[in-house]
Amino acid sequence: MRKLIVGNWKMNGTSRDLPEIAAIAAAARRHASVDSALCLPATLMDRARQTVGDFAIGGQDCHISDAGAHTGCVSAAMLSDAGAVLAIIGHSERRAAQHEQDSDVRAKAKAARAAGLKVIICIGETLEQREMGEALKVVLGQLQMSLPDAVTGDWLSVAYEPVWAIGTGRVAEVSDVLDMHGAIRAALADRFGDEGFKVRILYGGSMNGDNAVQLLTVPNVDGGLIGGASLTAAKFEPILSAAAALSK
Ligand code: PGA
């Protein structure tokens, strides 16, 4: 399976950053054996689209409806219209701050798929849940409740992102990543049969150029979802390069 490396710019980026986005797209072209994308603020998408050529850009959330009386929201159809080809759904920051439930995540993933977007569904436990020995139960529970009914082809990815590893510089132990990704793969296979093996499982949480090779070599780690280290080409390219080396 080709590795998928996706940057998540979160609430960062204005028109001043368009040259950096172009530099990231150029870096991605140098590592063509890897699938890559950058998920941007919706406000930048259209202008970014015009500078990145065929490099994939995506959104970070969408509404479940195509249009309507939902002040401040952005629909999947709008993301697609602005040039997005994928969307992150159910990021832990949205689950925490916007109180998104698994049922919302599932509905949003369905809406994004209906608009023709690829989807990355995020799941992950908090530190408290891990310390109570509940990480596996929590993550597999989120997975089951957030997944769509059916999957065919490779439009869906799942990102395992331990909440305590996001933006903290703390990375999950390789043995924990191995266990969690193995359990997620088993659950996907159980639910979707052969199609469950086509779903890429990404790791997210303080991935960077120094730890990417170690994380991306773990079985069932099919790529990464990267926050802080995706904000510049200088930090993002070493991750692309690590994934490319493993793709040879
Ligand atoms: P981080 O963010 O790489 O800055 O830890 C990852 C994410 O939130 O997807």
Notes on the protein architecture:
It contains ten helices and eight strands. The protein has a single domain (35-247), classed as TIM Barrel, CATH 3.20.20. Helix content is 42%, strand content 15%. It is of the alpha/beta class. It has an eight-stranded parallel barrel, surrounded by six helices. 2-phosphoglycolic acid (PGA) is lined by residues 8, 161, 166-167, 204-207, 225-229.
Instruction: Please count the beta strands (DSSP E, at least 2 residues each).
Output: 8
In N-to-C order, the SSE pattern is EHEHEHEHHEHHEHEHEH
Uncertain spans: none
Average pLDDT across residues?
97
Looking at the structure, what is the overall shape? globular
Please name the CATH architecture. Answer: Alpha-Beta Barrel
User: Which strand order do you get reading across the main beta sheet?
Assistant: 1-2-3-4-5-6-7-8
Helix content: 40-55%
Structural class: alpha/beta
Radius of gyration, taken over Cα atoms and rounded to an integer in Å: 17 Å
SSE blueprint and pairings:
Layout: E1 4-8, H1 18-30, E2 35-39, H2 42-51, E3 56-59, H3 76-81, E4 86-89, H4 92-97, H5 102-114, E5 118-123, H6 127-131, H7 135-146, E6 156-160, H8 174-192, E7 200-204, H9 212-216, E8 223-226, H10 233-247
Parallel strand pairs: 1-2, 1-8, 2-3, 3-4, 4-5, 5-6, 6-7, 7-8
Bound molecules: 2-phosphoglycolic acid.
